């Protein structure tokens, strides 16, 4: 279905429903991330120390089963797999087929047998078994419904499991806020960033415990670690 930004279906001129907007955002994300997939390697190391610190916060153990949400080309795989070892399991989901092709190449190059890729919308993915931990780096904020995605991750975790999230947003306070109109525009153009999705708020609402453990670049980049408490 062809759609316009203004909230109307460009073919029928009918107002777009919430579901139409969801599907339109998802399709734009697929197109944007398919397009960037050829170039992503040039910048994938930019967040390396931040990613590594987030993975450390998961306190992974050999044999753990881990979910990666919006894995892109698999930038985090080596480190995650290093923590869970050959007996652990990493299930990584992404909606861009071309990002997943790059992730598959990485898996084949390393000969990893316990990294599974799924082409799916992270908000709608269903899993047979719960995970011991989950991670999303630079991905939640580009999804069409952040809250729904976080709820799905929550459902997919064991009690006691952690979810580490690295993401970006306009500067929350301080003089850097003057740059926010530019930051918003850039993120929307570059990443199909979702201006209606407040990642920190969604995490705090859905999870029992959440803490912003790290911020960088005047708070534009942040790491949140959440925990799903033991039932009872
Ligand atoms: C900025 S990239 C981040 C990739 C990787 N996590 C990293 O840290 O480099 C965002 C990724 O989220 C994926 N994505 C966007 N919307 C998605 C959705 N609804 N479900 C699953 N993946 C999605 C994109 O295809 C893209 O690969």
UniProtKB/TrEMBL annotation:
Q: Which CDD domains is this protein grouped with? A: AdoMet_MTases
Give the GO biological process terms. methylation
Q: What is this protein called?
A: Methyltransferase type 11
Under the heading PANTHER family, the entry gives: TRANS-ACONITATE 2-METHYLTRANSFERASE, TRANS-ACONITATE 2-METHYLTRANSFERASE-RELATED
Question: Is Methyltransferase one of the keywords?
Answer: yes
MF term (GO), any = methyltransferase activity
Classify the source by domain of life: Archaea
| Ranges where the Methyltransferase domain occurs | 62-169
The protein's matches in InterPro entries, at most eight in alphabetical order, are given as: Methyltranfer_dom, SAM-dependent_MTases_sf
In terms of Pfam families, this protein maps to: Methyltransf_31
């Amino acid at each position: 279905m062809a759609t316009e930004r203004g909230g109307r279906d460009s073919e029928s001129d009918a107002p777009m429903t919430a579901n139409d907007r969801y599907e339109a955002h998802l399709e734009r994300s697929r197109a944007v991330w398919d397009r960037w997939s050829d170039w992503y390697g040039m910048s994938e190391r930019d967040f390396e120390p931040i990613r590594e610190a987030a993975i450390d916060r998961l306190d992974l153990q050999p044999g753990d089963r881990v979910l990666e949400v919006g894995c892109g080309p698999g930038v985090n795989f080596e480190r995650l797999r290093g923590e869970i070892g050959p007996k652990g399991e990493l299930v990584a989901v992404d909606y861009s087929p071309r990002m997943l092709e790059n992730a598959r190449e990485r898996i084949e190059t390393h000969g990893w047998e316990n990294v599974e890729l799924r082409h799916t919308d992270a908000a709608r993915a269903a899993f047979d078994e719960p995970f011991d931990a989950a991670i999303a780096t630079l991905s939640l904020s580009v999804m069409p419904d952040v809250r729904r995605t976080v709820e799905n991750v929550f459902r997919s975790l064991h009690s006691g499991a952690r979810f580490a999230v690295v993401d970006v947003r306009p500067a929350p306070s301080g003089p850097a806020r003057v740059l926010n109109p530019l930051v918003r525009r850039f993120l929307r153009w570059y990443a199909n960033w979702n201006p209606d999705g407040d990642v920190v708020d969604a995490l705090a609402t859905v999870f029992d415990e959440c803490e912003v453990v790290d911020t960088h670049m005047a708070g534009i980049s942040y790491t949140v670690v959440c925990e799903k408490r033991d039932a009872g």
